[in-house]
Design a protein that fits this description.
Blueprint: H1 7-20, H2 32-69, H3 76-85, H4 92-101, H5 103-114
Helix pairs in contact: 1-2, 2-4, 4-5
């Protein structure tokens, strides 16, 4: 059998791991074993927070819609119920954008619901 020297492969793997931990503090940035562990933890947190971000945005949209609907005589839940009964299919993201950026359009929409 021919002898295989693994220096190139191992060095490439090490450089890749350390490149991923660039900017980390202490040993996590320049020791391979602790860097691998740091990458593992970072990946776990990133996965979890990508899910959490969706939840937080939906909460933000709800708050914006409620804040815009209150002065117009609606609560959040009554507004959503009225929209469903009127068969207006706007999701919460679009409604919150209307409430934030185009308040007169949002007001016109709620006036149609009252009538």
């Amino acid at each position: 059998m021919v002898r295989v020297k693994r220096g190139v492969t191992k060095l490439k793997r090490r450089r890749n791991v350390l490149a991923q931990t660039k900017g980390y503090r202490f040993n996590r940035a320049n020791k391979e074993r602790t860097a691998k562990e740091a990458i593992q933890h970072a990946g776990t947190h990133a996965f979890r927070h990508r899910r959490t971000k969706k939840r937080e945005y939906r909460n933000l949209w709800t708050i914006r819609i409620n804040a815009a609907a209150r002065p117009l005589g609606f609560s959040y839940s009554r507004l959503i119920d009225a929209l469903k009964k009127a068969d207006i299919k706007l999701d919460r993201k679009v409604l919150s954008e209307l409430a934030k950026d185009y308040p007169e359009t949002f007001e016109r929409l709620t006036k149609n619901l009252k009538a």
